[in-house]
Structures are given as C-alpha cells and as structure tokens.
Specification:
It contains 24 helices and 14 strands. It is of the alpha/beta class. Helix 3 packs antiparallel against helix 4 and helix 9 crosses helix 10. The N and C termini lie far apart (53 Å).
C-alpha cells in the first residue's frame, strides 16, 4: 500500500490520534481539579498538555523500517512509553505525586507483587485499560502500514509546544519546586525521563544527594512570628511508657461511621474525647509509600521524593529517635504485622537492631493481629521499666477483605459486596485491636505513667473530597491520664512525632528534627508535603495549601544525603 493512498493517510491520522489520546488520558490523571475550577479551562489545559505525546511518532517511524533491529527498538520504545504511562496513572492516583523514574529499583519488584490485590481493588481506573488498548492499536497500525518519514513532521507540534513552554517558564529545572507532575504537564514525559535519568547518572558518590547543612525546624524557619511564639508546653508531665499505634488506612469518617446502624469504631470514638485530638494532621507519603511514615517517625525528616527512604537510608549516619531513646535508657520495640522484606524494612531495621528490637510477621503465624500486638506489648512491660512501643497495623491495608465471617454477620454485610462496607467492617476489627492493646497498658495509663498515641499512615481513599487538603488529613491523638483533653487545630505531620515522643519521656536533648513537639502551642503549625506543597493555618482558622517556593528546597532535599544509591 502506498503511503500517499487515502487508506494509508487515514491510518497515519489514526496513529497520531491514538498517541494524542494517550497523552490526554495521562493529563486527565495529573490535572487535579479543585472546587471553583472551571471545567472547560481544565479540559483545554489537558488538551494542550496531551500534544506532548505526539513526539512518540518517532518510534512509530522506526517500526516501519526494514531493519529488524530498528523495528524491535521502535516497538520496545512504544511499549515502554505506554507501560510507563500506565504506571504513572496508577502511582499518581494512589500517592498523589509523580516519582522520579528511578524510584522503583529491582529491589521493589517483589514488593509490587504483594500489593496487586490492593491496586486492582482500589487504584485501578478506566485509564490503565484504555492506555493498554491505545498502545496495542498503535503498534498494530504501525506494523501494518509501515509509515514513512512524512509522519515525523508531526513531531513539530510537541517541539513547538516545548519551545513555547521553555520560553514561558524557563529551563525545566525552574519547575522543580512545583513538582514532577507539573514538569510532565508542561514539558512532556520524554523530557522528564531524560532530565531524571541525567540527574541520576550525574550523581557523584554513594548517596543520591550532596551533603548540605541541616535546614532547621520547619516552623522556626518558615513559620510566621505568631507561629514561632507558641512555645509553652501545655502538658509538662513526663511518662515511663509511650505506645504509638499507627493504622495503615484510617479515615476520620471511619471513627464516626456506623454500618447498618452499628457503630464501627466505638472504642476510638470514645477514647478521642479524653485525648488531644488533632484536626489538621496530614499524611507524608512519598517515594517510599507506607514505609515513609516509619522513616519520618524515626528521623524527624521529610521522606525522600526520589527513592524509598526506609530501604535505602544509611541509618548509621542519622541520629534517630531510637538512638536517643537508647542513650536515655529507654527500650524500643517496633512491630509490624507484615513480613520484614516488605518495602525493604529488613534493610532498615537490620541497621537499627543495636538500638531497638524489631518484630515482623513470621511465616506460619496464625495469630490474629490483636493477639500479635497485645502479646508483644505484654512482653515489653515485663522486661523493662521504661519503653517505647511502636506498632504498625496491616489489617487495614486494602483491599479490606481480611475481616472474619463473624464480623460480616454482626454488621449484616457480604464480603466483597462493596469497598466501603469491606473497609468499615475491617475497621471494626481494627477498633477492637486498638481496644485490646490499650487494655494491656490500662493500669499504667490510669496511674499516669503511660501515654497512648494513635495515628494513621494515610486515608483509605474511599471518602474522597474535592478539596485536596481534605484527602491528606488523617487522625492523630495523644491520650494520657495527665494530659488535658482538647481539640487542636494545629497543622502537623509525622515529622512532629519524633520531638513529641522525646518530650513525653522528658528528654531535653538538642536533636536535629524538622518537627516540633505537638504539645507546644494551641492552634498553630506549618507543614511541608513531599508533593512540594505547604499547608498552614491562617489567623482566621482556615487551612491554606500552596505550592512551595525555593524556601522549601532545603527541607525537601536534605534527606537525600543519607539515601544510598543502591543497597
């Protein structure tokens, strides 16, 4: 068939259209529409951003060459492009930001296989199968018609768009503070991959970041005079026992929800009345996924946006919370109800074993999560007078089908009928687990020697809000017999847990942490997110979220000097 024939021209047009649609699908994921946004304007932005995808006519052209090597190269590039777009849609849909291209090394392949059920149950959207169909259709058409050099003229469109964007915004490096999703929307996937790969190969030494000075405390450096002035500790008591329970997926809505007329989390709902209940505590999830919560608690630093911090951190170079506690004669037990290799935790806690004990789910252990958690805490209370117990729950991880038939019968639900009922039924069992753990330390709690902290890693994703900030908010409670119960509007994140735990133990060491003791001040605070956004509380009590400027860079980049390039 001649290239100039009507059928061939139509086929070339279809190839270009399919590539354009792939760009539109990706843009529709990366464009987060907030309340007040005009849909027509957003669709126009997506339509323009999608034009970057037309650069992929280059591998389509290679597929049409006579050389088998060039054909294989073209097909490989096309396949890599569509697979990467599918990955970006899923990753951005779950984490809310775009990682560097080297975020997932070969060491994470095993981790990914363990969360496929979660991905298919919660994250998979119409975009991934659409991209698969578009990719196959593009490859088939390219193989059949073998387009000639004429199709390469299409590249002029993304080149002109790239040039106009470069003129408008300057170099791609100037977009660093706005996030990788902004980079892709304005410059396209190919320049983003090239820029990220160039950054990776340009790294010098064993770490992914250059040495830099500690940027200081976020509130002290970026907060207003009003925020920095709140230094009064509202709960000056110290304790011998601190228990931190971190729930994988916990929505504020779950605490107050009922299922078929039965309260889902009655214990936590009642407990929070006797705690400092933080209304503006926000999740910090970055390239390390759920493990980033542990990293920030351990280090008081923001997680790396470039690599999974727990897996690749050099903890011998970091004065962690656990090192400080060990120096002060406090025993630490970290317990996760999952296998140790998940997210590379075995690498992290293998380094930290000299200063803490770490336990994980063992093959063949058929105990319930509540039994595992309570048995471990009972052991801690028997072996030492002062202790920090950190339990990371796993039952609340999606797809939320790990609840018993008895629970299903109690709430009158059918397992798998809906994500929402599965989640709420799961959280009923999580609530009972929290109750049982609390009861283990009840005597010391009532005597004023123990304090109980409850928070989450992230939301379930099932109670989405059109306001971005609402989708980042998670519960945080500090409970103790000697702690004044109140509701706090203070803006905070898990980097604040490190200094808070030290304060609860009465430790006054001068440590380097980006966080601030949660007991200081009433309703202030400021938070930097890995998505290069900053959240703060205004004087009128409203929450504002905005893109970071260059002032945030020292905080976002500091961690990378402790992240090894490989492990």
């Amino acid at each position: 068939m001649k290239i100039g024939s009507a059928n061939s021209t139509l086929s070339i047009f279809l190839i270009v259209l399919l590539l354009y649609l792939s760009g539109f699908v990706l843009s529709s994921r990366l464009m987060v529409v907030s309340p007040g946004d005009i849909w027509g304007v957003q669709v126009a932005k997506m339509s323009v951003s999608a034009l970057h995808a037309l650069v992929m006519v280059a591998p389509v052209y290679l597929i049409g060459r006579r050389s088998l090597t060039l054909q294989i190269l073209g097909l490989s590039l096309l396949a890599a492009y569509f697979l990467y777009l599918m990955f970006l849609c899923g990753y951005f849909g779950y984490f809310g930001f775009v990682p560097e291209v080297y975020t997932f090394g070969f060491g994470n392949i095993g981790d990914m296989s363990r969360v496929l059920d979660h991905y298919f149950a919660q994250v998979l959207s119409w975009r991934e199968p659409t991209l698969l169909v578009l990719g196959v259709a593009t490859a088939v058409l390219a193989i059949r018609i073998k387009p000639g050099a004429t199709i390469l003229l299409t590249i002029l469109v993304p080149v002109v768009l790239f040039s106009a964007t470069f003129y408008r915004y300057g170099s791609s490096a100037s977009l660093a503070y706005t996030g990788n999703d902004s980079f892709i929307r304005r410059f396209g996937v190919v320049p983003f991959v090239a820029s990220s790969a160039q950054e990776w190969f340009a790294m010098d030494g064993n770490y992914i970041g250059a040495p830099m000075a500690f940027p200081g405390n976020v509130v002290d450096q970026l907060g207003s005079d009003r925020q920095r002035s709140n230094t009064e500790n509202l709960n000056p008591s110290s304790f011998d026992r601190v228990s931190l329970i971190q729930i994988e997926s916990l929505d504020l809505e779950a605490i107050t929800s009922s299922l078929n007329g039965i309260s889902v989390m009655p214990f936590v709902s009642e407990l929070r009345k006797d705690c400092i209940d933080f209304a503006n505590f926000f999740t910090l999830r970055s390239a390390g996924g759920s493990a980033d919560a542990e990293f920030t608690v351990a280090t008081g630093m923001l997680p790396s946006t470039k690599a999974p911090a727990i897996r690749y951190a050099d903890f011998s170079a970091i004065d962690t919370l656990y090192h400080v506690l060990e120096r002060n004669g406090i025993d630490t037990l970290f317990l996760h109800n999952n296998v140790s290799g998940f997210y590379g935790r075995n690498h992290a806690y293998g380094q930290l074993l000299p200063v803490l004990d770490a336990e994980f789910l063992e093959p063949g252990d058929n105990r319930t999560e509540a039994e595992i958690a309570t048995d471990a805490l009972s052991g801690v209370f028997e072996t030492g007078d002062r202790s920090f117990y950190y339990f990371f729950n796993f039952q609340s991880h999606g797809p939320f089908k790990w609840y018993s038939e008895d629970t299903a019968a109690r709430f009158g639900v059918t397992k798998g009928a809906s994500k929402e009922t599965d989640y709420l039924a799961t959280m009923a069992e999580v609530d009972d687990m929290i109750r049982q753990v609390f009861e283990v330390q009840r005597d010391e709690y009532d005597a004023g020697r123990a304090v109980f902290l409850l928070t989450a890693d992230h939301q379930s994703g099932l109670f989405g809000s059109p306001a971005v900030v609402d989708n980042l908010r998670i519960p945080m409670m500090i409970c103790g017999a000697n702690i004044q119960a109140r509701k706090s509007n203070r803006v905070s994140t898990s980097v604040d847990i490190y200094p808070t735990v030290l304060s609860l133990f009465g430790i006054n060491e001068d440590v380097q942490t980006m966080g601030t003791d949660l007991q200081l001040g009433k309703d202030e605070g400021i938070a930097i997110l890995p998505s290069r956004q900053i959240i703060e509380l205004s004087e009128d009590g409203s929450i504002s979220i905005a893109n970071c400027n260059e002032d945030c860079d020292p905080f976002l980049n500091y961690t990378d000097q402790f992240i090894l390039q490989s492990q």
